[in-house]
Amino acid sequence: IAFCTTAGATGEDSRLAWFRDAKLGIFIHWGIYAVDGVDESWAFYNGKVPYSEYMDQLEGFTGEHYDPFAWASLIKRSGARYAVLTAKHHDGVSLWRTPDKHFNVVDHTPFGKEALTAYCQALRRVGLKVGLYSSLIDGSHHDYPHFTREEKRYEDDPARWNRFRDFMHRQIADLNQRFRPDLVWFDGDWEFSAEQWDAPGIRAQLLATNPDVIINSRLQGYGDYGTPEQGVPITRPETEYWELCLTMNDNWGFQPQDTNYKSVNQVIRILVECLNMGGNLLLDIGPQADGTICPEQVAILEGLGRWTAKHAEAIYGTRQGIPAGHFHGPSALSPDGTTLYLFLDHVPTGPVMLKGLKNAIKSIEVVGTNQRLDWDIKMKLSWSDKPGIVYIPLPRGLCDPEVTVLALELEGPIDLFR
Ligand code: GLC
After folding, report:
1. Are 34 and 286 in contact (CB under 8 A)?
2. In a mutational test of the pocket of ligand 1, which residue from 85, 149, 187, 283 has the highest number of ligand atoms less than 8 Å from its CB?
3. Which of 79, 163, 239, 385 measures 20 to 30 Å from 265, CA to CA?
4. Is the Cα torsion angle 101, 102, 105, 110 positive or negative in sign?
């Protein structure tokens, strides 16, 4: 994964700086699959519904309440710093009119409008970075070899493949030039190799016209950052930059029967796990076919927003926390290492305990409350180099209903006894 692992070493840091500091983004899966509430693209690929029935959903995609400014304001209130919208999923239906004649919501649905122009404007108006998801796979294109899991259009036909590849490259170039996204989120790279997609060519083309654009990892090694999916990492992902993409319930697109939503508390605790390991969370919403976002999803974003607003200093721009063993829970550090944030997902029954901290502590504050806490150090003996144990009594009344954060201001950058 050449670019993923060397990004930091090749002066790429400044291009990726906003991304590293953003910590929270919102994924938006909006497409015709919301009409019947079936799996995005996979429904026909896996043979759950016939392709023709899947495509009949084009007729139900009205977008009549599509209000990208309302989306953008809600996303902003959640505390996210960027959003990524599915400009084109594996079904090949795009949210903008692409240069070649192909399925798109402007010409083939009652919505009849270009969704991307307004989306980009709205996000920029509220100060969010603009991400666009684009599938490399295109199950609707007659020159794309894989139609369904069972059925291939052809096996080996370089002329046909090249036709598809040229089409796909033109589409990406158009997306890049017209909308100048801050981030392009590819998907489906697993179906072909870097050479077959011409992944280096795609990367070069994007950066040539849009030099600051950030590219996710799903480009067979030619992206900038890792994208673990649906699994909160247990150990820190290897790429320097990474983002966990996660559904609120169990599906990416809108599916009314799926009410298996995570609670606000569960989402916050997953976000905190990402902060602890120096990554971002890309939390998904699936708007309905008319463009509205259902109340359950709105409630999660609003709940998240209350917590992120209160704890902003412990979120944005932080770096990964301290190794396990020092503190029983996730943590994060300010970029200069002089402030340590401890995340508490419970109301402690005794003082909060921190082991192996060599620095002197200047102050301890409950983030978002202006309340200072006292602390006490035990087992720091004059003849021993062991730093002792810091105990921080935390009154219940100061605890956040979801996750409480303590900020420890240290004398100098953090120094741990190992
Ligand atoms: C997967 C799926 C896709 C979804 C994406 C989001 O790779 O193919 O349906 O859009 O993950 O991460």
Report:
1. yes
2. 187
3. 239
4. positive
Is the pLDDT at 134 greater than 70? The verdict is: yes
CB 41, CB 144: distance < 8 Å: no
Q: In a mutational test of the pocket of ligand 1, which residue from 229, 245, 255 has the highest number of ligand atoms less than 8 Å from its CB?
A: 229
Pocket of ligand 1 (CB under 6 A): 40, 187, 229, 245, 252
- Ligand 1 midpoint to CA 415 (Å): 41
**CA 403, CA 267: separation in Å to the nearest integer?**
11
* 178 phi-psi bin (left φ>0, alpha ψ -120 to 50, beta other): alpha
Query: What is the pTM for the complete model shown?
Result: 0.96
Cα of 187 vs centre of ligand 1, distance in Å, is 7
Measure 283 CA to ligand 1 centroid, in angstroms.
13
Q: Which residues contact 300 (CB under 8 A, 6 or more apart)?
A: 248, 261, 262, 264, 267, 283
Report residue 202 as tokens: 């795609």
> pLDDT digit string (tens) for 295-322?
999 999 999 999 999 999 999 999 999 9
Q: What is the pLDDT of residue 375?
A: 98
DSSP letter string, 33-58:
HHHHT--TTHHHHTTSS-HHHHHHGG
39 Cα nearest atom in ligand 1: 9
Handedness of CA 142, 148, 150, 156 (dihedral sign): positive
Contact at 8 Å (CB) between 275 and 332?
Answer: yes
Three-class secondary structure of residue 155 per DSSP: coil
Instruction: Give me the sign of the Cα torsion angle 352, 353, 359, 360.
Output: positive
Token pair 């259902």 in the structure block, residue? 294
Q: How far is the CA of 70 from the centre of ligand 1 (A)?
A: 25
CA pair distance 200, 219, nearest whole angstrom = 9
Over residues 253-257, mean pLDDT: 98
